[in-house]
Amino acid sequence: MIAIHQAIYGEVLGKTSGHDLLAASDNNKELFKRISGYTDLADRPEGGVLPSPIIRGFCVENHFLLIKTFPDKNPKLRSGRVFSHVLLIAKSDLVQVHSLSDLFQYHMSSIQKEAEMHLLKHQSPKTASNKRLVNEREAAATNALFQNLVFVWLGEEGYWEWMAKIWPQLPTKVKYTLKIGAAFGPSYARNEYLNILYIPKNVKALWERHSFKVINLAEKETLRSTAAHWLMGDTKEGEPFQVLLDDFNPKIESFEQLNKLQDYGEVYHRLDNNPKLNHLLVLARFVSLTSPDERTGVKGKNKLISAILQAIPNSPANKFTALMYQSWKGFPNAIASVSEAVCNWLNNHLLRDKYANESVVVLVTVLESDTNNWWGKTVLGYITDRLKTRQLNDAQVFWQWMISEPTLITKHLAWLPTDVENELTKKIPKLEKAVAELVLRMAEQKSWLVLHARVAAEYYPVEKAIKAQLRIDTNEDHTVALEALSKSIKRSAFVPVAANQTDARLHHIVGKLVAQNSKLLKGINIASEGWQACWEVAIKQGNEVWSGISNPQHTFFEILDHLLAGNSFSEYLLNVMSTGKHSSLKDFPGRASIWQKLPTKARSGFIVATLAELIDELATGQIHYHDLEIELKNGVQSQEIQQQIISSKTITLTKKLRLFNVLPSLRESHALQLMQAHNFSRVEANEFGQLVSTNKWQKVVDALYNKRSNRQDLVPALLQCTDLLSLLQRFSLSISGVKADAITLDEWWQVFLSVAVELYPLGPTQNGLWLNAGGKLEEIHYQGISGKQSWSFAIIRIRSGGTPSAKKLLEEMKKENHSNPKLKKLIQLL
Length: 830
What we know:
alpha/beta; ten-stranded mixed sheet
């Protein structure tokens, strides 16, 4: 039972000044006064006079107004006046009005301005299913509703019968927006209403000009959908649509939703045919919006969820991502089961090579969506866990993803693990320049210095790549990335650019490269401190100082000119140069001025090398000692430089020997060092021996004598200075065969006397020696004199032909002194 208020509006001569409220069923007339304007005719037929009563219906404030308007033909009133009888039904009661035509019984049949208004009580019985056939005109109008066409019914004939058919099924909120009944001008059909109007036949052309479809008697249509049949009350043909309503219990609020339920619901009737996931999800989303209560529509929701779970495993990625739009509101326990299915799909697709290019859309989609919903949390949670236990080929998939969807690079913080740099670096594919730029930015943000280096080397010119790396790679102890950069660039291109930078790490890298291939020094800029540092490293790595320099002397002189111009140069390099090849300043034009520009240690080395080059000229008199610069003269006097000259491996032994003749500072001690440090050729040994003999260097002679057995190269030198040997030393040389004529016959007898006195100090008669050798005592002097004197007289006798002979005496001596070496030598030389 519903309450229906009523009111009448019009003009009473002498009581109202125009169209106004005349009577109402409620003493609180404020509402009735406010709606007065709606009961007059703003929309009038041509001429302004209503030809006959019309009915209109629409909602105002919280009431549905069903208005019957009569033309007021009272001659005393102005032409065009109308009288309206209004039925007011609260919106909340409108749902109980099952048959709109039942309300027409309460409308007046004529103008009654003095009638009293009373509250009406109405019971609207539910109408039975419509079994009548739908005529073609009704079908056209119904189709137009579902097609969202703007239309009007031509004439009143059949209009209210059609409205009676569709009214029970119209959603309640649709009824709130309805404007029904008669209309005359198109401006009456305002957009804020759902206009289901009829028009006089004479205004058809006007409405058609305003793009309204006019439903006339000549329509030839049939209902086009089960929803249309349902709306017309055809329970048989509308059954599939009714199933959707029964199974899901959606709250339909518009024809748009009716259309969607009709369209989306088609998949529900085909669940046994394995429909596509995206079609199922469209319906599921609609159900969540229109049936959010988990306690209703359970049957349909359970069937739909089962179909979705069955469709997920084989769904392509671009359809799989449609899951993100689902809230699963209204679906009991759906999130848990669907989340599990999502994880299974991800496990079978996301990081598989053959699905990589397809499945990347999932990652992109989740990163660009609301990751706080169930889908975002599920996908990101799976990815996070999966990437913690990465597999060997995952990095390759990551690259495939980033190449096909560069947006992933900019969103690296949301998905890419921080410890994956090594894996990515090993598998860098060919990148487009724009992608490479994004990768470089990502590498910088993640402090992936090696990846940055590798990519920069590939996509930037050499200098730009190096500078880009140095800008972010600032830890002086970190060299790995810069080494990776050097390995990624052709060495001949990398070296000259890197050498001219100020970073010590680059200098170390270049130096090692040069040590491996000295040709990389080609084009060196000796004025560059960076190049100098690289050169230093190369030498410390084992490179010979001038290795790789095509014209060492020219480069060396350039360095000296650089110093003369007041510039600095590596002291380390100068020190190394001073002890190697090409270290002589003999031919340098600015030699006299350069010495003070050189570091102390290097200056000493250069002085030694220069003196070595000047030896021949000094020795031949082409230049004189006093013509040398003071630095060279002082150098000669320096014990340090003298020592360097002697120990130098670059100055030949021949030149060192000649220096003794022109440099007065070289002494016997230096000669001893030469002897120890060098092996002598015969010519050099002869020259050395002459030098020793001339300077009477006794220590050197003794050393030569002592080394005569194990230093055969020194024997010629010893032979050049035998005059400085002692008699016994020369005797030994003679005995050994080194120099047979080392002693004379007189010297032999001197040795004989010396040995005889040594062995028989009492004289020749001691131990019966003289007698045993065949001599006679009376032939010698042995009484009253010393043993030496006795031996001297005996030797005079022997040398003059007396007996015994020297040989016989030596043989007798040997019997008693068989191990005495001197005796053996005397016998050998006899």
